[in-house]
Design goal:
The complex is a heterodimer of chains A (459) and B (62). Helix content of chain A is 42%, strand content 14%. Chain A is of the alpha/beta class and 459 residues long. In chain A, helix 4 crosses helix 7 and helix 9 crosses helix 11. Chain A is built from 15 helices and 13 strands. Chain A is globular and about 60 Å long. By secondary structure, chain B is mostly helical. Chain B is 52% helix and 0% strand. The longest helix of chain B is centred in the middle third of the chain and has 22 residues. Classes of the chains: A alpha/beta (459), B mainly alpha (62). Chains A and B meet through helix 9, helix 10, helix 11 and helix 12 of A and helix 1 and helix 2 of B.
């Protein structure tokens, strides 16, 4: 594929690779495919597309094939591990995976091989998922572009000259390009939702501490969240369910849009790109037509959330990296090194003030959530820009709408909006602990949008 | 008042010696963050406006 080519230029592999976990599970049980056969298609597609997209940093072909053969044998003998049986999985390269490199896309960890799985990876494998490989990311998850001075950019499947966003860049690109069915990432200031939004897939950041960070390299511990990325809300729920160790329902609770109170974060809706503004306005009309009530949430929290999030993130990251920052500083990418040094210079009083701002914002959002069921905004104010157009101002803009949820620990999901051009995401934020309900609401909106898109296409 | 020199000396005390290039890239954004955090929380400090304590009369814990 040449730079600037659209996704349509990619030679399409088997349609199942662009399908959902649910669809694969049905086909597998209906005898229409096998785990090993689907994995073969997946590996062939990765071999074709990955040199351009740069989503995977490592592919474990042998391990994946052995796991697939075993999972086929199990199914033939009557052992069914459930909805993730045989599902191909991409893992951000800061999760420990047994016997694989785990480098956080950094030269500082070159050659590092982890002996055991992170807890959530182990749970996904036990549920039948096959770890296909590790995915590229911003170095140590400290960035939102998907660009790497040391390893090159992850490219957007919707236009290879465009950024994919980050830091869970390769995981989102892998889902969008059909390189696998499920992926996992981390989100400290938006690192799951930003790339998911810019590539047109679903990304979920759960309530703080809902998912274990055991075996996951930290960026900033009071802000770090683990979460799934997939092609539908229900697929994300299936991954979340396994990662959290839940049993029971295999779908999120049914939520009716009729009467749903959707708070609109007004400060997150300012300064949108024209394409985003158009998609956003169309969404609000569709939601109102479906019986939902949109309720403006006025005010401007942007300065508070940006300062609080930046101070906490930079200071905590500098603490984690303090030894290497003294002894091996030249091995970091320049942008990472500068951010870490900024964090190292912040005084404790500034950190305390950031904590005060965080409490203030949490109380404000809790008050809002007393009067609305969910809070909505565009996930990103802009579409994916060209790689050469990334500027510090552009990066600040990318962060604006995603930093609130990890700062105060509430769950947030991005789902794709109907668009004629590059992907645009809708972000929904819910109550702490209300992860299932939030995904239920997201599934209802996803279903409504799909139905109205079908209606438009049939006219 | 936090000054650039104080920040750099505190970093040195922790074994972190910055090059002139790093100082140029790092100090401006750090000082801006410090000032913004001060500004956004200033009204809540002693001497700015009276802090609002809930249940002042019952407080005996200092």
């Amino acid at each position: 594929m040449t730079t600037g080519a659209s996704r349509a230029d990619l030679a399409r592999p088997h349609p199942r690779l662009f399908g959902t976990i649910e669809g694969f599970a049905r086909a597998l049980r209906a005898g229409e495919c096998t785990v090993a056969g689907t994995l073969d298609e997946c590996l062939a597609w990765i071999a074709t597309a990955n040199p351009t997209l740069h989503a995977f940093s490592f592919v474990d072909e042998g391990g994946a094939r052995r796991a697939a053969a075993e999972l086929d044998r199990e199914l033939a003998s009557g052992r069914d591990r459930g909805p993730l049986h045989g599902v191909t999985l991409a893992v951000k390269d800061l999760f420990a995976t047994s016997g694989h490199p785990t480098t956080a896309s950094s030269r500082l960890l070159a050659g590092s091989v982890t002996a055991e799985d992170a807890l959530v990876v182990g749970r996904l494998r036990a549920a039948g998922a096959i770890v296909v490989g590790k995915t590229h990311m911003n170095e140590f998850a400290f960035g939102v572009t998907g660009l790497s001075e040391h390893f090159g950019p992850v490219r957007n499947p919707w236009g290879a000259d465009r950024i994919v966003g980050g830091s869970s860049s390769g995981s989102a690109a892998a889902i969008a390009a059909g390189l696998c069915l499920g992926a996992i990432g981390t989100d400290t200031g938006g690192s799951i939702r930003i790339p998911a939004s810019l590539t047109g897939v679903v990304g979920f950041k759960p309530t703080y501490d809902l998912l274990s960070r055991d075996g996951v390299l930290p960026l900033a511990e009071s802000l770090d969240h683990v979460g799934p990325i997939a092609r539908s809300v229900n697929d994300v729920f299936l991954l979340l369910r396994a990662m959290a160790g839940w049993s029971g329902d295999e779908t999120p609770p049914g939520i009716a849009l009729e009467g749903l109170r959707i708070g609109i974060l007004e400060d997150h809706c300012r300064g949108l790109d024209p394409e985003v503004d158009e998609a956003w306005r169309a969404l609000l009309v569709r939601l109102e037509r479906s019986g939902a009530r949109t309720i403006p949430l006025p005010g401007d929290s942007i300065a508070e959330l940006m300062v609080a999030s930046t101070v906490l993130m930079f200071a905590e990251a500098a603490d984690v990296h303090r030894t290497w920052l003294r002894d091996r500083r030249s091995e970091y990418e320049p942008a990472t090194r500068i951010r870490l040094l900024q964090g190292a210079l912040l005084p404790a009083t500034t950190y305390a003030q950031a904590e005060r701002l965080r409490r203030r914002l949490r109380e404000r959002v809790e008050r809002w959530l007393d009067s609305v069921d969910v809070i909505a905004s565009p996930t990103q104010p802009a579409i994916a820009c060209r790689i050469e157009d990334v500027t510090p101002d552009h990066i600040r803009r990318m962060l604006r709408n995603t930093r609130l949820a990890p700062l105060i620990g509430v769950p947030a999901v991005t789902i794709p909006l109907p668009t004629r051009g590059l992907p645009i995401g809708l972000q929904l934020v819910g109550r702490a602990g209300g992860d299932r309900e939030l995904l239920g609401g997201a599934a209802a909106i996803e279903s409504t949008l799909a139905a109205s898109s079908r209606g438009e296409h049939s006219r | 008042m936090v000054t650039a020199e104080i920040l750099l000396r505190l970093a040195e005390a922790r074994g972190l010696v910055l090059t002139s290039e790093e100082v140029a890239a790092v100090l401006g954004p750090v000082l801006e963050l410090i000032r913004e955090a001060e500004r956004l929380t200033g009204a809540e400090s002693y001497g700015a406006a009276r802090p609002e304590f809930s249940g002042d009369a019952e407080r005996e814990d200092g």
